[in-house]
Amino acid sequence: MKKALLITLLLVFVIDAVNAQSFYSRRRDRSLMFSFGLGQSTYHGDLHDVLFDGFTARPNAGIGLRKKLGSQLSLRLDLNWYQIAAADSLNQKIGERKNRFGGPDKRRPRNLSFRSNNLELSALVVFNLIPVNNSYTRRPLINPYIFAGLGLSSNNPKALYEGEWVALRPLQTELIPYSGRIMVVPIGIGVRLKANQYIDILIEGGRRFTRTDYLDDVSTEHVDITEFDVLFGEGSENARLAKALSDRGPEGGFQDFRLGDDRGNPLKNDSYYIFQVRLEMYLPENLLQQLFSPSRKKPKFR
Question: What pTM, to 2 d.p., does this model score?
């Protein structure tokens, strides 16, 4: 974080030195902003029923490029790496809630857990609550904002078993294949704090709604484990792993589950949250032109 801040401040110094050569440089507006930040992420699903029940915070990092379209509206393209995780051992309320059909939750301790490292690419519409009509240098010291958009994320849950992290998606622990890419809908709020002429500090948090119930590899019910011999071949390594990771109750000293017992709730999709602190830098208006325009030879004078 310190190295990133040092690099950003060095870039700001160079840009300021260039712009200081022109009396009118401070009057130019800047509509292109680059940001990067760090934060924490958490997940909401079958292994973590309530936001702060069994809460497990994991790291994330992201970069973004925002284009100002008006006094309040802008578009932002984000690329985030995030980690999410959860475990039954952190959830103390199994059996106290309703099941997927509205009756008593008859789940016994499942001893299930997962961890996932994913990449998310999203396009966001950002709306400032306070208009910025003049040059970027006259923006307010504090400006709350909201954002929403669409994105695509990888989906790669793993479980720690016999000292190694085993990918769960290829094992089809509920005999249901699911994709390694998911559609997400980010919605959130934030506040922009003016640090100096060129840099803002962003504090934001958002929920990502998904179209899957398999962020955690848990969704429906316990299956007949002999089906894994049919799927992967009797005696194969994948069949052995699928049997062990489909029902981890015996591993934790609990009773075996029966065929059809609830393993998760398929009526509710999983989601995750990303909280970040970002540094956003206002870039020179002609930066892209300088980067992507072909070089021109200067005329020679005789």
Answer: 0.82
Domain boundaries, the chain: 30-286
Q: Among 170, 159, 38, which Cα is nearest to 89's?
A: 159
CATH of domain 30-286: 2.40.160.20
Q: How do residues 95-136 score in pLDDT, each as one tens digit?
A: 555 554 456 555 567 889 999 999 999 999 999 999 998 889
Quote the pLDDT of residue 7: 52
Q: What is the pLDDT of residues 157-204, one digit of tens each?
A: 999 999 999 999 999 999 999 999 999 999 999 999 999 999 999 999
> What is the number of other CB atoms lying within 10 angstroms of the CB of residue 152?
13
CA dihedral sign of residues 168, 174, 179, 183: negative
